């Protein structure tokens, strides 16, 4: 049975690969340097899975000493999960995906904590939960503004002085 695009994307290792390919093109070697805790065989296997599933694409091939080094990038339409595909999932499948999402976040946080010499305040680490009382129109406007701000920050390329930070959102409607 073919694995759904949702399952392909939300795998913890593949999610980390995708996160590094947002707004940049990288070779497998560069990904290996960015993800040193992932064994090389596992990294290559997951890159292949993402490529075969058309979540990431080979955007260039560079000849290197008699071989070809592939350059990978995400392709935004390939990363999209259609509302129709999401609506077809069962309650159990949604819970499974949500648990994978939370596990990915927990993994990121654990890797941060394991670095040792950390300073949560100086590093800007935080997690919060707030309730917002918004009409449907106000909520759409809020999400639009948030996406616009996020896109502006996400367009910044890696360079000296910039730290990679994980930002996650979860919106859950509540009837009370």
TrEMBL record:
Residue spans making up a coiled coil are none
What is the superkingdom listed in this entry's lineage?
A: Bacteria
The GO terms describing molecular function are: DNA binding
SUPFAM superfamilies per record: Winged helix' DNA-binding domain (SSF46785)
Q: Does the keyword DNA-binding apply?
A: yes
Q: Which Pfam families match?
A: HTH_20
Name by which UniProt lists this protein = Helix-turn-helix domain-containing protein
Origin species, per record, is: Neobacillus thermocopriae
